[in-house]
Each structure stands twice: as C-alpha cells, then as structure tokens.
Write a structure and sequence with these properties.
The structure holds two protein chains of two kinds. Chain A is mainly α. Chain A contains 15 helices and seven strands. The N terminus and C terminus of chain A are likely disordered. Chain B has three domains: 237 residues, 3-Layer(aba) Sandwich (Rossmann fold); 175 residues, 3-Layer(aba) Sandwich (Rossmann fold); 75 residues, no CATH class. Chain B is 34% helix and 25% strand. The mean pLDDT of chain B is 85. Classes of the chains: A mainly alpha, B alpha/beta.
Chain lengths: 363, 504
C-alpha cells in the first residue's frame, strides 16, 4: 500500500516536473530513430575515438546548448530574445583567429600567440558584445529585439572586416582540439571536446544560478521589474548581467565553432543559430514572456533540435527539404506543450478520475 | 421562477486543488435591486462572480436567469454577456485610445453599405450617455476622461447590451468621493430601469448608502441574505468575521509611555520635482507617523523620496544622526528601512513566484546576491511569517498570485518584517482588504512601534489613522503643510487638509 503510494508520488513528481515534457519529446525523437534504424544507439570506436549518432548529436548540439544558456536568461529577465548571438559567434571566431595569426593572413602554420590567448580574446569580444546589448536593453530600455538587431546586422560584417574579408585558416594541430578531439602526446581523448565544453558551461551556469541568488533575482526581475527594484534588487544591473552572460556564451560557442573548421568563416559560422537557440528555450517549456525558467529544459530542447537535424540528414532527407520536416516536428512538439492543450489533457484526466471515483462508490 | 427575480444561484460548489472555495452557496437577485455581496478576503465573493460569468466552471449547483427555462452554465464571459449578465471590473477594460462612441459600440458598430455608419453611431452613443446623465462628448477619445467617467462608460456599454444583471466588482476603489457620488446616481437610475445590480465592495459606508440587500459569505459558505434595514453595521461586520470583533478604538494604548526622543529619520528639504516640494520631517524611535491628505497631495511621494523609490533631488537626509545618500531602494534597506508600496500589483507582488520566495526576496536582496539564504532557512522564515501574520494558504510553495488580495498584502508585509527594519513605510497597507485583516494590520503597526520600530502609515481612511498614529503630517498639493501631534481627531485633520488656519 505504502509502496504504491510512493510510486504514485514519484510518477506525479516526474510528470509534474517542468522538464518532463521536453524530455518526453527528446525521447520520442530518439525512439523514432531507433525504430527506423536499430543501429542508431550503436557507439563504436574508430581510430581511437568514439563514433555513433548519439555522439554526433551530443557533439554537434554543443553550440546550441551553450547559446541556449544565455538565451534562457535574457528571455527570462527581459522577455526578450538576443538575436545577435549567431553573428556574434562569427565575430568572436574572426577575432580569435586574427589574434592568433595576424591581420590579413589567409592561412598560417605558425601562431603569434599561444592558443589560449586567442580563445580568451574570442570570449572577451563576446562579452563586450553582451555589454553593448545589455546597455541598450537595461539602461536605455530599447526593446531587446531592436537592440540586438544592431549586432545581428553588424557583428558578422565586423567579423569580415577583422579577418580582412577572407576565411582565416589556422593550420595548427592544437587549434583543432577545442572543436574536435584533444590529443596529449600519443593519447587521444575518445570523446569530442565540445561535449566537455558544453558540460562545463552548463555546470558553471547551474552552479551560479543555484548557489547564488542570481536565479531568483532573474525570475523576480523578469516577472516584475518595478517590484524587484522596490525590494532592493538592482533590476537594471541584473538585466545587464544576463545579456553579458549571453554574450559570453556566444563567445564560447563561436570559438568552438571556429576550432571545428580551424578557420574563421565569418559568412557561415553561427548562421541562423540564434533561431535554434530561441527554439531550444521554447522547446524546453519556457515561456518567451519571461519570468520563471528552467535551464535544464532549454538544454534538453537544444539537443532535441540537434537530434532532429542529425536524424533528418541520416534518413536521407534532402538538405533543401529538411527544414520542412523539421518544422512539422517542431510544430508538433510546441503544440503538445501549449497551455491550451495541456489544460485540455488535465481536464480530461480530472474528469476520468472523478468518473472512476463515482463508479467505485456505485459498486 | 419567482416573480421579479432575475437571477438565482442554488447550491453552487467549487473547489480549487486543496481548498473548497464555495460550498453550496445560494444567491438571489431581484429586479431593480442593488444587492451587496460582502465577505472578507477569501470568503468566495470573487469566485462566485467568476462562476456566474463563466470565468470558472463549477462542480455542483444551478444557475437560473429570468427568461431562460433551463439552468444555464456559462463557459465564457461572452456567453454570460449574451444571457444578459455583464460585469464591470475595478480596472476599466476599454480602449483608452478610441472615442467614447467607439468604445460603446466596439464589435457591434452600426453599418451602412458595409461601412461603419459614424453619424448614427455617434448619435446613438450620445443618446445612451445622455440617458444615463453622464454628460460627456462621445466623439472624444476615452483617455481624456477621469477613471470614474471611464468606468461609467464601461457601465453604459454593459447596460446598453441589454443586461438584466450588472455586476460591479469593486468599482469605487480608485474613485474619490465626488466620483463615487456620481456612480451611485447612475446605479440608482439603472435600478429604476429594472436592472439587477450586484455590488462588490469593501466600503461599508457605500453599502449602506446605496444597497437594498446584503448577502454575506464567509469561508466559501453562505452566512445569510438580509434586507439592509435589518442589518446594522456592527452586525454585518460580525457576520463577515464570524465573531464579535473587538473594539477597534482600543488598539492604541492610552498610557503609551514609550520614550520618543531618539531621532531615527531627520529629513531636511527633501524634494522630487513635480511630485513633492521640499519638506522637513523628523521621526523618532517607536513613533507612528501618519501621512494624510487627499489623493495626489503628495503623501506617497513624500515617503517614496525618503526611501529612494523616487530619488530625492534636493535636501539632506540623516538616519540615526548620520547624513546618508540614498540612490536606490537597496541603500535605504541597508539603513534599516522597509517600504510597502501602495500599488500592490505593480510594485509589490512577484506574481509567479511562491509565497516563500516572495517573503525572503527582500532579505535576500539585503544580504546580496552571493549570500544565498539556505533553503532550510528560507522555509523557516516563510513558515514563521505565514504563521505570524496568518496568511491563509495550503502551502508556502503556492504562487502568490493564487492568494486573495488581502493575503497577498500580508505576504508583502511579511517580506518586510523578515528584513527586521527599524523604520517601516506602509503606503495604503489596508486598501482593498477586508475589515478583519485591516484590524490585524493596525494592531501590527502599534505592536511594531512598541518594539521600538518607527512606522510611517499612509491611509485614505482617516479613522484608521487616528486609531494608530502618534502624529499626523498633513499634505496638500504636493506640499507638507503641517503636523498635528495633539488632539488628533477627524475634525482637526479635516481642517488641516482643507486649509485655512491649520495647526502649528
């Protein structure tokens, strides 16, 4: 008796959790894959590194997951999306590569500075972009979409300026580590590095949000900016900080993306990533109207998107048609999570339970 | 259905998760009657109204409306409207940027050749407005009129849609006396036309001024229905509270011998342009200062300038003898101040957060972002204040938005008590809440003062201030015009507010 009660409460806890639906969606996407091709879950070792669809998804989804962290916060705090993150990624990549090889160099085998300096410059530029966005939104109270539109348009172009209109290649083995696999001497890490980067970013963010009051502040400001100010929270600063974090995330994602292709391809790095990041937040069950948020949901959302993309390519859906199928699946996921649908399901359940109770009494 | 009855509700039952909101409530509304629906916060008034208008569904019971044979269930306010049940809320929900005529006819504009027939519309609108003796120009946009007039337009719209039942949910909260008078005139005219009016309000005086009948609810149960003449005020209050409430006048100790010479706040020439002219104010330890004046006289603004909610632009402020600079509320909080703003919705509650979070947030802000209050401690604090100020809730994790107005207010008060302030500003802490809670809050203020804390108390109800305050500061037109420390009576205060030969 008590056992079943415990079970009930566990299920209730599980289904009541905010990340339950996003998890179900991710699970469904994977399930369909497994049914279609049982080899989906297989992970093998080739040339000393892990291969497999799951690894691929985890690897390729890293940038979206990292961006989703920042996007979750800007949406929560200001009900505003930072649409500049994709462009900022490209700018950060350009700055990183140009720092390492020098201005105007199209391809280099030698570095001017150690790699970590380049990475730090890349991330720093991201933070600067975040400061700009944050200042516009928090201090000048420009609408987030408009404020970040500035860098959405400009950052990619500035990136091209920085890299002198060319794809700056960094043909140094170590530069590939961040986006591919780390090698120390003869040993090669079998797990792609971006997975680690994503894990570290998520862990840092979680730590920061849970171990300080920042998470609570962000929600409070997102729900009621004025009331938050009256009770002693510096609303302007909190909004600013969220945009800076978002910029930082874009910086990290940008350098990772650049390392993958060991170049700064300002035209393509981070292209349309802002939309995927926003979608990740939405798929994670977060309201785009701000306020309460679930970081875990957004991260799950990010990998769901990547799983979809990988799946479609693997199924041989043509690249041109892939967005159509993706859109259909996304519409389904969004509809399942829509408040109206959720209420409907809840009401039906309640009715069933009360009807069942009535029968039991009749018996 | 009985003759002359327009609406009956029988045995209405509604439960929210964990709470029985309505338990078999009956309600009867007759033709041409103004019927007050009274009860404390959480008594079920709003729920009953929402069940009637289709905002909520209900589990049991029947609703009958005159002219419809079978029982009705409304699923939306639109459906209720079609059956002749209209509601006008405290907040006017019309479009301020449209003209009065457009607002009256929005969605049902008279058409000519498929286009809006402006001439007919304006003519008809003017007629409606004139019939109700509102006396405004219908071709002017709504925002040019006062809230009271906007509210009357909302009522006119409701009535013109052939309403048999008109629900007025706290329509007078934001109106001044003249406006209330006008509104009552209009209600009486509608009554003569045979409309049944349900009037929800917290103001006892208004109930006795305009209503014919009172239905009292308590804890989701019907207490009874009474003709107004058979229910004196004291009894009404007793019925609402379920007990004979103690004499309010006895709140303040007669022999209050607290030593009040230690200066806490010393403001010199503080001002905020366009809101409050430079003022001086001294507040001592353990003192309750009342700020009084008409709405817009600057009483809130004075308090806000001290607290830094609106940063003071001139003058100096000394706290505990030391000159301080307050740029933002957090600075004031660090000096031991707390501030309960008058607009609970806009500046008080953080709606989607839980009661626990709402209580600890100010304390957390005071400690700083990096010193998160441990979860255990948060729960202990929340529990303590929920108990201490008697917040009615199933759990501390309930979002504050699910509480009734009075309970929300209590949570916000708890938030400030948690920061253990030396000096607390309460701006209209009792507005829109029931009389029982009001008394509790007044008692709390006196208790705080006894503990050596200083309080600024702002209220529109002079009696309440007389009961609680040691000293009154009178404001008029954005200026501090005087102080009354002896012989605080309604007469002296009124005189000071009105001007002429004010005291001191």
């Amino acid at each position: 008796m008590s056992k079943s009660a415990n079970g009930d409460s566990f299920i209730k806890k599980l289904t009541g959790s905010k990340v339950f639906l996003p998890l179900v969606c991710l699970f469904l996407v994977i399930l369909i894959n497994v049914i279609k091709s049982p080899s989906f879950l297989q992970i093998s070792i080739n040339n000393g590194v892990l291969y497999g669809r799951l690894i691929d998804i985890a690897n390729r989804g890293s940038e979206i997951a990292i961006l989703a962290i920042g996007m979750t916060l800007t949406i929560a705090v200001s009900a505003g999306t930072d649409i500049s993150v994709g462009s900022v990624m490209a700018l950060c990549a350009s700055c990183c590569c140009t720092t390492l090889v020098g201005y105007g160099v199209a391809s280099a085998n030698k570095l001017n500075y150690p790699i970590f300096i380049g990475v730090i410059v890349g991330i720093f530029v991201g933070a600067v972009c975040g400061c700009f966005n944050g200042f516009m939104v928090a201090r000048l109270k420009v609408q987030p979409m408009v404020a970040t539109l500035v860098l959405y348009t400009a950052a990619r172009a500035i990136g091209l300026l920085v890299s002198n209109n060319q794809n700056t290649y960094v043909r140094v083995e170590e530069y590939k580590y961040l986006g591919n696999f780390i090698k120390i001497g003869k040993w090669e890490c079998p797990i792609p590095t971006p997975i680690f980067v994503a894990i570290i970013c998520v862990a840092l963010a979680t730590l920061f949000l849970k171990k300080t009051a920042l998470g609570m502040y962000i929600q409070s400001v997102g729900i009621n900016k004025n009331a938050s100010r009256i009770l002693g929270i510096n609303s302007v600063l909190i909004i600013f900080v969220c945009y800076v974090i978002c910029g930082l995330c874009a910086g990290v994602a940008g350098t990772v993306a650049s390392s993958r292709i060991y170049s700064a391809d300002s035209n393509n790095i981070g292209l349309n990533f802002e939309m995927d990041a926003i979608l990740a937040v939405a798929l994670g069950g977060n309201s785009l109207a701000g306020g309460k948020f679930s970081l875990a949901g957004s991260i799950i959302g990010a990998y769901t998107i990547q799983a979809l993309t990988t799946t479609l390519l693997a199924f041989g859906v043509k690249t041109e048609q892939a967005p159509v199928v993706k859109a259909i699946v996304i519409v389904l996921i969004v509809v399942i999570q829509a408040p109206a649908v959720q209420n409907y399901i809840k009401n039906r359940k309640a009715r069933k339970i009360s009807a069942g109770g009535g029968e039991a009494v009749a018996k | 259905m009985e003759n002359g009855v327009v609406l009956t509700m029988r045995g209405i039952t509604k439960t929210f998760p964990g709470v029985k909101a309505l338990g078999g409530v009956d309600f009867t509304l007759r033709k041409g009657e103004i019927h007050a629906l009274m009860g404390e916060n959480g008594a079920g008034k709003s729920t009953l109204i929402k069940v009637l208008t289709g905002v909520y569904d209900f589990e049991n019971g029947e609703i009958h409306v005159e002219g419809i044979d079978s029982p009705i269930i409304n699923h939306s306010t639109q459906e209720a409207q079609n059956r002749g049940i209209s509601t006008v809320y405290q907040e006017v929900n019309l479009c301020p940027n449209l003209t009065v005529a457009e607002n009256l006819f929005i969605g049902r504009e008279p058409k000519k050749f498929g286009l809006i027939d402006w001439k007919t519309m304006n003519k008809k609108a003017q007629q409606i407005i004139d019939d109700l003796d509102i006396g405004i120009d219908v071709t002017v946009t709504l925002e040019n009129y006062s809230v009271a007039l906007q509210q009357m337009v909302a009522i006119a719209r409701a009535v013109d849609m052939e309403s048999k039942v008109l629900i007025l949910d706290e329509p007078t909260s934001s109106l001044d006396d003249n406006e209330v008078e006008k509104l009552f005139g209009m209600m009486n005219r509608l009554k003569e036309q045979g409309v049944g009016i349900i009037f929800v309000t917290h103001f006892l005086e208004q109930v006795y001024a305009v209503c014919d009948r009172i239905t009292v609810l308590r804890n989701g149960e019907l207490v009874g229905e009474y003709p107004i003449a058979e229910l004196p005020r004291v009894e009404l209050v007793a019925k609402m509270m379920g007990k004979n409430f103690d004499d309010l006048a006895s709140i303040k100790d007669a022999d209050d011998t607290c030593i009040k010479d230690e200066l806490i706040i010393d403001a010199n020439g503080l001002s905020h342009k366009g809101k409050i002219k430079p003022f001086d104010l001294e507040i001592h330890k353990g003192e309750v200062i009342g700020l009084t004046g008409l709405l817009g006289s600057g009483r809130s603004e004075l308090a806000r300038a001290i607290y830094g909610a609106d940063k003071a632009q001139t003058g100096t402020l000394k706290v505990n003898g030391k000159e301080v600079k307050i740029n933002a509320p957090i600075d004031a909080m660090k000096l031991g101040m707390g501030f309960l703003p008058d607009d609970r919705k806009a500046e008080g509650v953080i709606a989607d957060l839980s009661i626990r979070e709402n209580i600890i947030l100010a304390l957390q802000a005071k400690r700083g972002v990096f010193k998160l209050i441990p979860r255990k401690e948060q729960e202990r604090l929340a529990e303590k204040y929920i108990k201490e100020i008697q917040v009615k809730t199933a759990s501390m994790e309930t979002p504050i938005s699910q509480l009734s107005g009075g309970n929300q207010q209590k949570v916000i008060i708890g938030r400030w008590l948690a920061t253990n302030p030396d000096f607390l500003i309460l701006d209209e802490p009792t507005r829109g809440i029931d009389i029982g809670t009001k008394t509790e809050i007044q008692k709390l203020v006196v208790k705080l003062a006894k503990e050596g804390k200083s309080v600024i108390f702002i209220s529109s109800e002079i009696e309440e201030m007389i009961r609680t305050c040691d000293r009154m500061v009178v404001l008029r037109d954005g200026m501090k015009v005087g102080e009354i420390s002896e012989d605080i009576t309604q007469a002296t205060i009124m005189k000071a507010i009105a001007g002429g030969d004010s005291n001191e």
